[in-house]
Design a protein that fits this description.
Blueprint (H helix, E strand, L loop, with lengths): L1 H23 L3 H8 L5 E2 L2 E2 L9 H4 L2 H9 L18 H4 L2 H12 L26 H14 L1 H4 L22 H10 L15 H13 L11
Antiparallel strand pairs: 1-2
Helix pairs in contact: 2-6, 7-10
Length: 222
């Protein structure tokens, strides 16, 4: 009995070490989550501002992936516009971090038989948290922390526009609002929060904003 217990303990330790080693083999994953996931999806998780990167390693060479991080407008995926991706990663990432991120992305090749062509953003991208009470509560906390000083505590406007009516200068779909919060709007006071809010936090903030809607029901576009 004692011998079996020792063997079981050794097996658990071996599996634990194996899991730790597997995590250590992909140090770029954390860099992706901190810097990229707010705009890019991998296997359904992440933002929709930029291309889905689930199979980027099968579509792009290591050199092209590196170039896309350092000089985003050098090669633009079909269906997307220039000047979307921030150009700060050359300063934000060390050489080692850049290598780790490139290695992580180059390993994303998808499953056998999975389509590897690049497609543009879905025009009907929807907020997964719309109508979710818990998400609305969490979104309110985020809104009060980062948005209320400009848009008012109830989203009814202040120095910046009212978010509760049915007038949206740049469009009011979930996808447009997500992109506006992520990247900001040139020529306005709206900054981008791509480097301070995670994808889920942005969606939850939008869920809270939707919960405050006071416009005409027939003008709802989400």
């Amino acid at each position: 009995m004692k011998k079996n217990l020792i063997c079981l303990t050794l097996l658990i330790l071996i599996l634990a070490v194996g899991r730790s080693a597997a995590v250590a083999e992909e140090p770029g994953m954390e860099l992706f989550r901190d810097n990229c996931q707010v705009c890019h999806k991998i296997n359904g998780a992440g933002g929709a501002v930029g291309p889905d990167l689930s199979t980027v390693g099968a579509r792009r060479s290591v050199e092209l992936i590196r170039q896309s991080i350092l000089d985003p407008d050098a090669v633009i995926a079909e269906g997307y516009e220039p000047d979307i991706m921030p150009k700060k990663f050359k300063e934000l990432l060390s050489g080692e971090q850049l290598d780790q991120l490139v290695q992580f992305l180059s390993n994303l090749k998808g499953s056998p038989g999975e389509p590897t062509n690049s497609t543009g953003p879905k025009p009907d991208e929807k907020n997964p948290y719309t109508g979710n009470p818990q998400a609305v509560t969490e979104g309110e906390d985020i809104y009060l922390r980062v948005c209320a000083h400009c848009h008012g505590g109830n989203a009814e406007g202040g120095m910046c526009p009212d978010l509760t009516d049915d007038y949206w200068k740049f469009g009011g779909t979930d996808k447009v609002l997500y992109r506006t919060i992520t990247l900001g709007r040139k020529g306005t006071r709206m900054p981008g929060f791509w480097n301070s809010l995670k994808s889920d936090e942005i969606w939850k903030t939008i869920a809270f904003i939707r919960s405050k809607y006071k416009g005409s029901p027939d003008k709802i576009v989400w």
